[in-house]
Amino acid sequence: MSDDYAHGRRDGLRLALAILAAEEAKWSALLGESPSWRTNAVRKVRHKTFQVAQSRVQTALHRVTPRNDPAIDAELASALKKVGL
Description:
82% of the residues lie in helices and 0% in strands. It is elongated, with a radius of gyration of 16 Å. The protein starts with a helix and ends with a helix. It is built from three helices and no strands. The chain has helices at 3-30, 37-64, 70-83. By secondary structure, the chain is mainly α.
């Protein structure tokens, strides 16, 4: 696997993580806001689904990130800063 491919793969996972975080924040703001119990239940399930997806993407990101490489920490920090996290 080339370095460019691995870098692109990590960037893709970071982007997916940022999208999931934004969606999770949107649904967490809506929890319990509706007078309908059914709507609140659906929102709670969606919120939990985004939380689970975030943890799975985070796990995948950790698996493809090389260990003991200080350049990766700077790369991760710059990517997170770029997406606003």
